[in-house]
Design goal:
This protein has 489 residues and is α+β, with helices and mostly antiparallel strands. 42% of the residues lie in helices and 17% in strands. The longest helix has 91 residues, at 307-397.
C-alpha cells in the first residue's frame, strides 16, 4: 500500500511561490467595497433583508457590521476612506413603503429606490426541492447581468453606471471559470419602470447523458436488484416531467477550461443551470440627488419643477452653505479666543504662586534671623555672667574654681531657642493669625510658657491632681445599682 503524501504537492508549492502579496493587496484595494445597513426602525423582515443583501455583496462588504441607534451617516462616511468603501447601501421604512438608497462615496450621486415587493433568501430556498447553495460560493464576487437598461434617458445611464460600479470588473482573458459561482440579474421593465432583482447560483453539468449515466459517472453505485441487466437501468425512461431537467441550445456552451466535476472537461459541451438563492426584490427609481444625500435633484419620478423654482432652490442651498461656513468660522474664532484667555489666566496664576512662595521664603528668613539674634544675645549674656562668677570666686578665695563649680546653661538656652524658632515658623505660616512683629511673637510665646510653668508649680505645691486626666462618670460607682438594666422578655 502506497504511503500518502503529507502537506501540499510540488505544483501547489510552486504556485504559492509565484504569488505576490503586494500585488494581491493592490488588486484588493481597487475592488469596490460596500456597507449595507438599516436606518431607523424597520422591523424584523427588513432587518433580515439587510443580512441577505450583505450575503449578495460578499466578499467585499462588512458582513458583521454593527449599527446602533446612536450612529449617524457621518460616522460611516468618516471610516469609508481608510477602508476603501465606495458604496453605502441603506434600507429604511416609512408608513408608505420600504426604501433602498445607494450612495456613491465620497462625492455622490445618491439614488433612492422604492421597494414594491421583496422575498427573503430563506423563503426562496425553502421552495426549492434541492438546495444547491454552498458556503464556498460566497468566497468570490458575483457576476452582474443587466437587461433592458439601454435608453435615451439620463437616469437610465446613471443607474446602469451605478450598478456596474458596485461589483468588480472582470477580465475575460484572465477569468477562471471555477471562481464564477454566483450571478446577480437586473432586468428593467420599460412598461412600469421597475427593476427585477434576482440572485442565482451557477452550476455546470455535462450534457448528452441521462440521469442514470450521470450517477455512474459521478461514482455512485445504484441498486440493480430490480433489473435483469445494467442496460435496463441505463435505458429506462420512467422519469416524471417535474424531475426532468430540460437542456438545449439556450443553456449549452463549450467549456474553454476544465472545471471540477466529472465530465466537465475542456472543449466539451456542458449545460449551465441557475438556481435562485434569494433575495428577490422589485425596485422603482424615485430620485437621483447630486452629492451625498444633499444637493441638487437631478431626477424625480413624481415631482417636476420649473426653471424659476430650480433657480430659487439653488440660491437657497448656496445661502445655507455660506451660513454654515460663517458659523464654522465664528466657532473657530471663539475657540481660539477662549484658549488664549485660558492661557493668560494660567500665566497669572503661576505668577501669583511664585510671588506667594517668595514672600513665604522671606518671612521664614526673617524669623530665622530673629531667632539667631536671640540665641547669640542669650549666649553672650550667659558667658558674661559666668565670667563674673569666676572672677569673683578668684578674688575672694584666691584660686581658680573647679570646672564643675559653675555649670553653663548653654545647651538649655539652645534648646529653648530651637523650640521658640519652631513656634515662630508655625505661627507665621498659619493664615488665620493676625500679623505681628517677630519680637511680639516671641514675647507672646514666652508669656504663655511662664503661665504654664507657674500653674504646674502651684498644683504640685498644693497636692492637687490634674482633673483633665481622670475619666468622669455621670454617677458614682455605688449608685449604679439603683439603675438596673431591664430584663429582656
Amino acid at each position: 500500500m502506497a504511503r500518502r503524501k503529507k502537506g501540499v504537492g510540488r505544483s501547489a508549492r510552486n504556485a504559492r511561490k509565484n504569488i505576490n502579496p503586494e500585488a494581491l493587496e493592490e488588486e484588493y484595494k481597487k475592488c469596490p467595497h460596500s456597507f449595507v445597513l438599516q436606518r431607523g426602525h424597520v422591523g424584523k423582515n427588513v432587518s433580515r433583508l439587510v443580512l441577505d443583501m450583505r450575503r449578495v455583496m460578499e466578499p467585499f462588504t462588512a458582513t458583521n457590521l454593527k449599527v446602533t441607534s446612536r450612529n449617524v451617516l457621518k460616522d460611516f462616511f468618516s471610516v469609508a476612506g481608510p477602508l476603501n468603501v465606495t458604496h453605502l447601501i441603506t434600507f429604511s421604512k416609512s408608513e408608505v413603503a420600504t426604501y433602498l438608497r445607494i450612495i456613491r462615496l465620497p462625492r455622490g450621486p445618491t439614488m433612492t429606490f422604492k421597494v414594491h415587493e421583496f422575498s427573503l433568501g430563506r423563503d426562496v430556498v425553502s421552495s426549492l426541492k434541492r438546495n444547491q447553495a454552498t458556503q464556498s460560493q460566497y468566497l468570490h464576487h458575483p457576476l452582474l447581468v443587466m437587461n433592458h437598461f439601454s435608453g435615451d434617458g439620463m437616469h437610465l445611464k446613471l443607474m446602469a453606471t451605478m450598478f456596474q460600479n458596485m461589483f468588480p470588473s472582470i477580465n475575460v482573458n484572465k477569468l477562471k471559470l471555477n471562481d464564477v459561482k454566483r450571478c446577480v440579474l437586473l432586468n428593467y421593465n420599460q412598461e412600469d419602470k421597475t427593476i427585477d432583482f434576482r440572485h442565482y447560483n451557477i452550476r455546470v453539468v455535462p450534457v448528452g447523458m441521462s440521469k442514470a449515466v450521470k450517477k455512474l459517472v459521478r461514482g455512485q453505485v445504484p441498486n440493480l436488484g430490480s433489473y435483469n441487466d445494467i442496460s435496463d437501468y441505463v435505458l429506462r425512461e420512467n422519469l416524471s416531467e417535474s424531475e426532468m431537467e430540460v437542456d438545449g441550445p439556450h443553456n449549452e456552451v463549450e467549456l474553454p477550461q476544465d472545471l471540477p466535476g466529472r465530465g466537465n472537461v475542456k472543449s466539451a459541451k456542458s449545460a449551465i443551470r441557475l438556481t435562485e438563492i434569494g433575495p428577490r426584490m422589485k425596485l422603482q427609481l424615485i430620485k437621483i440627488e447630486e452629492g451625498v444625500c444633499s444637493g441638487e435633484v437631478l431626477f424625480h419620478e413624481y415631482v417636476e419643477k420649473s426653471p424659476e423654482e430650480l433657480k430659487a432652490l439653488k440660491e437657497m442651498r448656496e445661502n445655507k452653505r455660506k451660513l454654515k461656513e460663517s458659523r464654522k468660522r465664528k466657532q473657530a474664532e471663539n475657540v481660539e479666543r477662549k484658549q488664549a484667555l485660558k492661557e493668560e489666566l494660567k500665566k497669572k496664576s503661576l505668577e501669583g504662586m511664585k510671588r506667594k512662595e517668595t514672600e513665604t521664603k522671606a518671612t521664614t528668613a526673617d524669623a530665622e534671623a530673629a531667632s539667631d539674634d536671640y540665641d547669640s544675645g542669650e549666649e553672650m549674656r550667659k558667658e558674661e555672667e559666668d565670667d563674673d562668677d569666676v572672677e569673683y570666686f578668684r578674688q575672694e578665695v584666691g584660686q581658680d574654681p573647679d570646672p564643675d563649680t559653675f555649670t553653663s546653661r548653654k545647651s538649655t538656652n539652645r534648646t529653648f531657642a530651637r523650640d521658640w524658632k519652631k513656634k515662630v515658623n508655625v505661627y507665621t505660616k498659619s493664615s488665620n493669625r493676625e500679623p505681628l512683629h517677630k519680637s511680639k511673637i516671641r514675647n507672646k510665646f514666652v508669656e504663655q510658657d511662664r503661665k504654664q510653668k507657674t500653674q504646674k508649680r502651684n498644683s504640685q505645691r498644693d497636692g492637687v491632681e490634674d482633673d483633665s486626666r481622670k475619666r468622669k462618670f455621670p454617677f458614682k460607682q455605688n449608685d449604679r445599682k439603683s439603675f438596673p438594666h431591664k430584663k429582656r422578655k
